[in-house]
Amino acid sequence: MDRKRELRFFDITQWREEEVYLRQRRKEGWNLVSVTLPGIYTFERCEPEDIIYRLDYNPEGIANEGEYLQMFADCGWQHMLNFMGYSYFCKPAAEAQENEEIFCDEESRLDMIGRVFKTRMVPLITIFLCILIPNLFRVIDRLTPDPWDVFFVSFFGFMTLVYLVIFVRFYRCYRKLRRGE
């Protein structure tokens, strides 16, 4: 059976882009088999088909997997896989209503985004700051920085920029959903 792997990165605000990406691959005849770190999607060759994909982030739901998956199955969604707290579901487009969602309202989607933020972003920020602040003081205390100091300052500067971009995107996404746009 033909297999292929693709490297793609989606942040917490890009679930819709990821759903579109998976749908496009299926239309091209590639069925999602697995997702692994650091964003490696594994596909198997299949018959091209228009399949809608939806993602949910609910680690508590995965803990009660039977009833969690049954709730989606009752609505016609097939469970594909779990990856780092996310559950991937799909349904043939012919069986779905136009733009059918697994969330009944935007408040549910906001709850999902809040769960992602609390369980993913807050711990990462805490770890990041616990590493950043002591190293910045170490560099500032030296009169002549060595090459490693330059590397650390550059690396942490870059990581700070990445976090800021993710936070701004998260805030915009959250605000947009709050307004119902």
The strand count comes to: 6
**Biggest sheet architecture:** 3 strands, antiparallel
Task: Please give the order of strands in the largest beta sheet.
Answer: 1-3-2
Q: How large a portion of the residues is in β-strands, by DSSP E?
A: 15-25%
How many domains in all? 2
Description:
With 181 residues, the chain is α+β, with helices and mostly antiparallel strands. It folds into 2 domains: 3-95, no CATH class; 106-179. 54% of the residues lie in helices and 21% in strands. The protein has helices at residues 15-27, 59-63, 65-74, 106-141, 147-179, and strands at residues 3-7, 30-36, 40-45, 51-57, 78-83, 86-92. Strands 1-3-2 form a 3-stranded antiparallel β-sheet. It has a 3-stranded antiparallel β-sheet with strand order 4-6-5. Strand 5 (78-83) and strand 6 (86-92) form a beta hairpin. Helix 4 (106-141) runs antiparallel to helix 5. The chain is elongated.
Summary keywords:
181 residues; alpha+beta; 2 domains; three-stranded antiparallel β-sheet; 5 helices
Summary, kept brief:
The chain contains five helices and six strands. The chain is α+β, with helices and mostly antiparallel strands and 181 residues long.
Sequence-ordered SSE layout with sheet pairings:
Layout: E1 3-7, H1 15-27, E2 30-36, E3 40-45, E4 51-57, H2 59-63, H3 65-74, E5 78-83, E6 86-92, H4 106-141, H5 147-179
Antiparallel strand pairs: 1-3, 2-3, 4-6, 5-6
Helix pairs in contact: 4-5
